[in-house]
Amino acid sequence: MDLRPTSKLKLDVGARYTDEDKRAIVLNRFYADATFSRPIAVAADFDKKTNFTNVSPKVSLDYQITPDIMVYGLATRGFKSGGYNIRANAVAVPRSAEPFDDETVDSFEVGSKMAFLDQRVFLNLSAFHNKYKDIQLSVFTGIDTNGDGTNDAFFGDFTNAGAGTINGLEIEYQYLPSQHWLISGNLAWLDAKYDEYMDRGVNVANQMKFTNAPDFSGALNVEYRTDLASGGNLSARVSYSYQSEVWPTTDLSPVIRQDGYGLVNAGVVWKLDGAWTFSLQGTNLADKEYRTTGYNIPAVGTLIGFYGPPRQYSLSVRYDF
Predict the structure, then answer these.
(1) What pLDDT digit, counting tens, does each position of 227-270 carry?
(2) Distance between CA atoms of 85 and 96, rounded to whole angstroms?
(3) What is the C-alpha to C-alpha distance for residues 215 and 209, in angstroms, rounded to an integer?
(4) How far is CA 198 from CA 225, 252, 267, in A?
(5) Domain extents for the chain?
(6) Which of 291, 197, 218, 298 is nearest to 248 (CA)?
(7) Per-residue b/e over 296-308, b at no fewer than 16 CB within 10 Å?
(8) Is 225 strand, coil or helix?
(9) If you average pLDDT over residues 25-37, what whole number do you get?
(10) Closest CA to 74 of 85, 63, 65
(11) 31, 36, 151, 247: which sits with the fewest CB atoms below 10 Å from its CB?
(12) What is d(CA 237, CA 239) in angstroms, rounded to the nearest whole number?
């Protein structure tokens, strides 16, 4: 619902209702060899149903101080339904055959959108505060299959971490120094912490970290654009993006942790007579090696890292008709 009490003030109010039924039919077995022809044990065998309902409200308020400056505030709730872990091992961990809870987040944000110098400079500012409850996490759980007191196997578990808080600030900017040049980018600061993370009855929130949540990130883009005397136009762009240290997985393995890094991309686009477009693009031009995720599972001697694409080039031709 969109309300306008005055010409400068706008109020939006809404809500989303969710009603989900979920069913899991699971039969997980252990096999004697790699041919998967002779089962030797059953890890999970169940057929279960569950239901999740949620009402997520949203309220936002915008105020147009001047034609070029607007401030706003909003409050909203997000919802992610729960479900079942189809990789459950109900024998070793009976809880894994039960449904995990839905995840909710209450989000609050204030900010402004501004333009200066005859709309040659644009600046957007925002600050947010997010409160998470029953955070859904995919984790590896070690299990003891031979009863010797040592975990010698694992399975992919899905569970709820408890609660967490994320605070952040973000700046987006754009500057047009002339008709040919465009400078844009963003800066962001993030403070993500668990308030509760229960592990075997103990709250270990102070020892845990949000995955893929860098404290600092940002980008700078410089673009040159010009019309050509022969028709069409030419544009060239160089960009640099940076993010600080992240922990890609919940196990917080130091060998998987990714230090801060930056990436350089560039490209040239030539548009000819409104129909033809020629594009030369390059990504990760410094050929930076960086991990996106990975696994460290000492119980089975597994250490795997997945990496982002190396330096790449592409040349494309497009014709519109």
Answers:
(1) 988 788 999 999 999 999 999 888 788 888 999 999 999 999 99
(2) 7
(3) 11
(4) 54, 16, 48
(5) 2-319
(6) 291
(7) bbebeeeeebeee
(8) strand
(9) 87
(10) 63
(11) 36
(12) 7
Residue 88 CA to residue 160 CA, distance in Å, equals 15
Bridge partner list, 157:
139
Token pair, residue 94, equals 């009976």
At residue 35, φ and ψ (nearest 5 deg) are: -80, -10
Residue 281 host element (H or E): strand 276-283
Give residue for tokens 């299959």. Answer: 145
Amino acid at 93: V
The token pair that represents 180 in the structure block: 């040919």
Pull the structure tokens for residue 136.
């859904």
CATH of domain 2-319: 2.40.170.20
pTM metric for this prediction? 0.84
Residue whose structure tokens are 């102070």: 206
User: Which tokens belong to 272?
Assistant: 């000819």
* Cβ-contact 88, 96 below 8 angstroms: yes
Which pair of tokens denotes residue 152?
């010698």
- pLDDT of 97-123, one tens digit each? 999 999 999 999 999 999 999 999 999
**Phi and psi at residue 248, to the nearest 5°:** -70, -25
CA angle 297, 298, 303 (to 5 degrees): 55
Q: Write down how long the chain is.
A: 321
Instruction: Return the structure tokens found at 210.
Output: 């949000």
**Which tokens belong to 238?**
């160089």
